[in-house]
Amino acid sequence: MGFSKILINWYSNNKRELPWRQTNDPYRIWLSEIILQQTQVKQGLPYYMSFTEKFPTVFDLAKADESDVLKSWQGLGYYSRARNLHTTAKHVVNELKGVFPVSYKDLLKLKGVGDYTASAIASICFNEVAAVVDGNVYRVLSRYFDINTPINSSKGTKEFKTLAQELIDKKNPAEFNQAIMEFGATQCTPKNPDCNVCPFNKSCMAFNKNKINELPVKIKSAKAKKKYFNFLVFISNDGKTVLEKREGKGIWQNLYQFPLIETNANVDEETFKNLIKEHNLIKGIPFELSLYNKDVVVHKLSHQHLHTRFWIINVNRLITEGISTQDINNYAVPILIGNFIETFNF
Fold first, then answer.
1. Which of 165, 194, 214 is the last residue of a domain?
2. Which residues are catalytic?
3. Is Hydrolase one of the keywords UniProt gives this record (predicted)?
């Protein structure tokens, strides 16, 4: 029995029942694939369910305010995914009359849709022979064939895509693609896979060479930069605070945050108090300052680690309009800010 047949047979007996596997609607497949980029199923599933309830069709998503989309995305991270999702929904509705492209080539033209997502939609919805290659697929193929080419190199990207395209079941590409992703997610796991019950254990080269823990190979990324974030949490006597919308490119674009001061290192309370006296939201008014978290919160992003402190600033009145603390949960904020809001309990 060949690779694809063994894989699909395993899948038919072991697949998880997931809502996006009950449909070939390109909107729902696209939505699930975008949510599951860099997100595990157990975390992404509740978001998929709430998204499809709030935005059941691409038309509903297209007419939504970006702030509502970002608020629904809150906690998933990588917010560019949500912004691209919204942009693409509007493009599909306004330019394509609500009809998704039906080929891999045309799907690639959609903003936020790369090789993997285009392959998934094309195969699952339109039965096109387009092999998916994600982290799970890299792991399965690198181990089974003992491939040492780094998966995050241009050579590796081409090599694994070519191999996956050769292996895909030409008569049943949708089933094959879902099978190989599921196999990597639940059987050929990153750590401690149960190779004794694996249907490929007799033919898997990495298993027979005792190299399971060495594959796949990945080029180490540059060391993450440290940044020191100090958020100013204003609380006025009339129950207001200040949130600012992050403009421009970069992390958390169009999300809301408390006013921010970056420093070169962690600073003590007295030093910080002197530092902020000239801040435009404090200048000229009396205030009381206290540090909320004695232990720094380290928020890890892909290329930077944010060493974060929240400073509580009590004032009689704000010198800007501000918002009611009762309305603070209506704003889309990064998970770092959201966690603080939840624990601080305005």
1. 214
2. 33
3. yes
